[in-house]
Input
Amino acid sequence: MRKLVLSILIGVLALGGVFLGQPNQEPVAEARGGRVLNIYSSRHYGALEAPFVAFQEATGIEVRVSDGEPRALLERLRAEGDRTPADIFLAIDAGVLSLAAEEGLLQPVESEILLNNIDESQRDPENRWFGLSQRVRTIAYNPEVVDPSELSTYEALADPQWKDRLCLRPASHIYTVSLVSSLIYHHGYDEALEIVKGWVANNPTYINSDTRIIETIVAGGCDVGIVNHYYLARLKSQDPEYPAALFWANQDASGTFYNVNGAGITANARNYDEAVEFLEFMSSLEGQAGTPEGLPGVNFEFPTNPEAELNEILAQFIEEFGEFELDLEYPLWEYGNYQEDAVRLLEEAGYGFDEG
Amino acid sequence: MSQTTLSQSRWNTISIQVKAATLPSLRWWRWLALILPMSIAVLVLMPLVYLASSITDPNEALWTRWWDTILPPMLINTLQLTLGVGIGTFIIGTVAAWLVTAYEFPGRILFDRLLLLPLAIPSFILGFVFIATFDYAGPVQTQWRDWFGDDAWFPDVMSVWGLIIVMTAVLYPYVYILARASFREQAASTFEAARVMGYSRTQTFFRLVLPLARPSIAAGVVLAMMEAMTDYGTVSFFGYPTLSEGVVRIWKGTFGFDAADNAAQLASLLMFIAFGMIVLERLLRGRAKYYQQGGEGRRLQRVPLKGWKQFVPTAILGVILGFAFILPYGRLVYWAYHEVQNPQVGLLSVDIFQEHIKNTVRIAGIASGLVIGLSIVVAHGVRVTATSGKKRIPRFIARLTTLGYAMPGAVVAVGILLIVMPIDHEFTDYLELEWGRTNPDLFFTGTMTAMLYAYVVRFMAVGFNSVDASLEKIKPSMEEAARTMGAGSFRVFRRIYIPLLKTGIAAGAILVFVDVMKEIPATLILRPPFGTDTLALWVYGLASEAFWQAAAVPSIAIVGFGLIPILLLMRIGENTKETHG
Output
């Protein structure tokens, strides 16, 4: 008999564990009495970032962040549908944001403040998401070996002169996918395929970290690579003399490719008002600051609010590497339309999906 | 040890005398004791069966495309890695075990125990330390180029070789422990007989000692191979696509839409391969049972090495231990120190660190309690029903509940995801409509339920084996005797069950705890959004962006927790030695 009691007891305890194991007994604002904002974010550095803390302090709204890769978070939003606990979807890729918007996962936001703060080119035409900081994906090189006059465009890296001298990010990363989507937009699929095949023919070293690409360039493992600008900024912030340089690609063509770190409010957000406040705060001069308390500043990115002050390392970049134009011909909200093609193209071109 | 045996035989004698006085057997709870484990088995099998059924409805377009692109390299890579780690752990583990068993050399006693330490380092942590140290821009190659010029050859670190080295370094202790135990058990007399027959020491080792130890060594090697096959973190740092990594990658949407369904397709293939591994393990282990005569007490005489030779084992083992534990651990400490002084990424505050520790301990704690609880139900059920004569069926059911141990976390997670996703919304709608709950969380994926489910499937074997082993020690006669002597059920439970089960349960709980703490893929796929940033995911996020220094801080915490069972294991090693001596 006692065995029965024992079994049942343990069984009940075990099942009880499952229910007690619900991580958040008070996920909704009402339960706590305070105000809460739930964010799905694809910036994954483990820490609650300074701009979020600043927002929390300014508004008294508690910020909770769940991070993951942009496309994985999009999948999650899809699966959760109107039950998602997320109020804000923050993604480092305009393509993913556009897809989320097109699928009805994000809702239009009516806010004069946002419209005033953020330029038309940096947000969804239907105001379902807003770019909050810009990252420029451009060419990094070793100034000891490469003269900037040798560099011109992404397309030109397909030239045989760069054989065995390139470091590129594998196709499994969204940075590569989005860059290639811009080639498809400008040149059409077939011509873009030829360009990418040219890169592949140059036998690039695939490295799945922009930091390591730059470090490898400096160490002499390759001469030229394609990276997001802030990875170099970060290295320079630790060592101002860090010996790598950036070249703003495609200035004589349609401009340098860039992406935004942007955010939208989920279709069924439980904390809609808080979410609007968040977007407005992040687009304000405070949220757009070039210091670590601003969303662009914390990651050495460019602000999307034209009034905002630039981070000082970025100001040095412009002094050192010159002024540049972004590729505004390829609208951010089109990015999502070319990503599937880009993945297919990368596969077809034999571009590496992995390191090596 | 010997005391238990003595008391057991005494209980047996008493129980024969009092058989007539035992309680009438209560059929219905015996049925329950069978039904509960069966339901657990069904629960564990559900995601696997669901995946298996998805292969009967293959997405042909998808498979054709994969067959032309990603599938062949994944298959080859998985095979290479698994075999490589099998061979590597076999050589390192066996050699190390033989050295500490058969020879006397400086530092032997220390090595005997310390060689277990690498088990505390999860392979993804050693993986990123290795990459940071030996990659092109790392300190070793930079120094190398300084010495030998810019074009000096250096092996490609980010390759299958680098990966095999890392995994072997972490996994060889599986083989080492089992091989060492087996070498120790072998009677000195057998060995001496062979020596008298004129075999040299080396010949004896290859012709006699090694074949006799085969079942143990094979078990250790297959275990290491399973770990290599199911690994996610390490292979993804190395950018080395295996099938396990592929499932997660597809789930992440790397290859386009319908990510969960597509991932299930690949997961079903991988599941059959994992199943093959289980069969392989059974074959290697099951058939080969060798018995030898007598000589229990006397151990192999260790040969003292003289002159320079005595330092050869010291050097070999020193290199192994240095590479697999001391250097990487030192480097982690060094990085962590610098990160605390001058943070590389964002804000490293005590709060954030505590938050991750708290999440990890809570998740791993709940999971290990759950797994152990279910293990007790199963082990107890098997025992109760087995005594009524039919041993096979309950044993089989128990085996089914532990089937998940060879399955990659990603496979289990995707299987569960597919099952719970459709239920999730209906159940939540029901809660809202019928119970009037406002905005309930999704039942499975919005809470820890789905994630815990995955841990149960994945780690049930670990818990069950520990609990079952300690339950074996309690003979039914002991209980019957206690009862006839007037002990009430509570007293029996307190005086017999608790003392005898304590160690096994604690050991099992710690092992499950550490396994859950290190888990990445299932956690990544099934975790609820908030409050589940574990240490392992923190390390994973930082290290995949090459923030080595920042990743060192949570890594040290993980290794710290991982050391607990290893230290216990070392103590157990000592205890058995004492009783033998």
User: Anything to note?
Assistant: Chain A touches chain B through 70 residues (CB under 8 Å). The longest strand of chain A covers residues 130-141. DSSP finds 14 helices and eleven strands in chain A.
